[in-house]
Design brief:
Bound molecules: ligand FNR
Helix content: 40-55%
InterPro entries: Aldolase_TIM, Alpha-hydoxy_acid_DH_FMN, FMN-dep_DH, FMN_HAD, FMN_hydac_DH_AS, LMO_FMN
Keywords: Oxidoreductase
Structural class: alpha/beta
Cofactor: FMN
Radius of gyration: 20 Å
Protein name: Lactate 2-monooxygenase
Organism: Actinoallomurus vinaceus
Strand order of the largest sheet: 4-11-10-9-8-7-6-5
Amino acid sequence: FEIYLNGLNDVLPSLPADLTRLEALAREKLPPEAYDYIAGSAGTGDTAVANREAFRRRRIVPRMLRGVTGGDLSTRVLGAELPAPLLLGPVGVLRIAHPEGELAVARAARSLGLPMVLSTAASHSMEEVAEVAGPRWYQLYWPGDRDLAVSFLERAAAAGYTALVVTLDTFTLAWRPGDLDNAYLPFLRGVGIQNYLADPVFTAEAGEDPIAHWAGVFGNPGLTWDDLAFLREHWDGPIALKGIQQSDDARRAVDAGMDGIVVSNHGGRQVDGAVASLDALPIVAHAVGDQIEVLFDSGVRTGADVVKALALGAKAVLLGRPYVYGLALDGEEGVRHVLRCLLAELELTLRLSGHDGVAALSSESLFEQPT
Ligand code: FNR
């Protein structure tokens, strides 16, 4: 109602309520190479498109006369009480979208009590972000240098990051034609290596050329399931594995003593032609049941999308590109706009479809259209 009441005084919102329109607006504002890096996907973009199509194929089936007076969005994920089943997913190099980058995102997330998952590839160090952030989790790109990995974990714990999200699908960057055509990689220009530059182990080893050293330690393609025991030894809080798309992998995460998984294909940025993340979700969720907490990302653009992901077994969703477009357009305020729109639409969609809170959602809340 706030928006409608403002309208009585001819005050209109500066950003659209339809979040799918933000991308085109951000494109007008951002330098082309920054836009392409953020919006881009792997290969032909097939998987990024499939992520959206998987949402369109599923329809919410509204139920009536169910006394929907509550509409409680709160939930508990990896030991944290969340006001809504929504987190700001880890996105690196945010300074290419806005000078305040991760700091603006952290402030917006804090104002709504939503956790921010800070990327290893952030363009502000985890300590700087912690100073302005509310609830915070740390995303690890596990470097091919164990001392450095341990140092990252110790710093994250000391700076108040409560849960660890280990991203498995990006031990090297994928074939991304947009970035190749622009010959643009932010890291090689010194953006997104700020967690490395602030690290005593890294600086001791890097010597004169930190960017070359980063390129040498960033990837870790030799990792296997056995290595997870090492992480457990060095991180006391909950751990979630991000990038799971398959049920055996999900079961292995349970066997490895992990606390959560994020069903994700990195927004279609890694394996072009990969299964749509929303199609993988119900299969994976069914395979693990209640043995591990299942989170989801890739393709979430609306409150209705959140409803669909929760109905298919996700406990919460992570948002990617939409909040980055909000950041590009209006800094902290733009991110808050995106989050508030999404939360309001989620709450309305839930209640209008007859669900008195997120716990009332199930696969019966959806209809899958035949292809
Ligand atoms: C990402 N993502 C990502 N993931 C991660 O674990 N660490 C990271 O540093 C990044 N960096 C990153 C940069 C940019 C520009 C984008 C768009 C994405 C992936 C991100 O966490 C998430 O999986 C996807 O963005 C989800 O898909 P949507 O919501 O963008 O469709």
